[in-house]
Amino acid sequence: MELDLTDELTGVADLRHQVRHLRWFKSSFRRDAALIAEHHGVVLKIDDRRLTEVFLNWIEAFNRQKSYAALDRRDFTLFAAGLLLREFLRVRPVTEADPRPTGAAVGDAWSSSIVRFWPEGFLYTNYCLSVLSAVVQQEFGETLSLAKCADDLRLWWSYRENVREDPSMAIAFFDKFVGEEPNWRVPDSAESRAAMRRATKKLFAGQGLLGH
């Protein structure tokens, strides 16, 4: 999966805070939709009211669990991106407006087949991955590597079916796409994440709170 928006976002100063501003969030999301439309020949319609709802729901969910960033800031950054994806899939602000135009440009074969299969889900996921990739570069000096399964159409079938029943499952699939250990049981709980459990155990051990 190509994350074209990432190249543009890495030059945005203090990106992790910028994305928490509604106007910037909306404009960057619309930019990613335009890039995907251009590269894959899909026409996507964005409901502005619902897009605002996505943002407000995400900020509320983010603030409820942001204390866990003190345990493992990098893992909480991944989790926060997954929370955003959950809200996209819960509120669904995007619809495909028209069929693919004849002769439209297409990107790589795998991504194009996923876009044809689920254009809205591809956009939501691509945006969250693009923002995460840029933030990881800025904050941690790392290049985010996607797992091979991120281009596996069979996994996307499972992804779409599962999030229709429970949008929180998007967080677990998102972790899988970036090569992290998914929490399939309670994906929307920061404290239940493997990295957070390890960080908590290490903290308690350092304070002598664990039994010998």
How much helix is in the residues? 55-70%
* DSSP summary: helix tally: 10
Low-confidence stretches: 101-107
Spatial sequence of strands, sheet with the most strands: 1-2
Topology, element by element:
Layout: H1 4-9, H2 15-18, H3 22-40, E1 43-46, H4 48-65, H5 73-91, E2 94-98, H6 109-117, H7 119-140, H8 153-165, H9 169-177, H10 194-206
Antiparallel strand pairs: 1-2
Structure description:
This protein is mainly α and 212 residues long. It has one domain (4-206). Helices cover 62% and strands 4% of the residues. It contains 10 helices and 2 strands, in the order H-H-H-E-H-H-E-H-H-H-H-H. It has helices spanning 4-9, 15-18, 22-40, 48-65, 73-91, 109-117, 119-140, 153-165, 169-177, 194-206, and strands at 43-46, 94-98. Strands 1-2 form a two-stranded antiparallel ribbon. The longest helix is centred in the middle third of the chain and has 22 residues, at 119-140.
Summary keywords:
single chain, 212 residues, mainly alpha, two-stranded antiparallel ribbon, 10 helices
Give me a quick take on this structure.
The protein is mainly α and 212 residues long. The protein is built from ten helices and two strands, in the order αααβααβααααα. The protein has one domain (4-206).
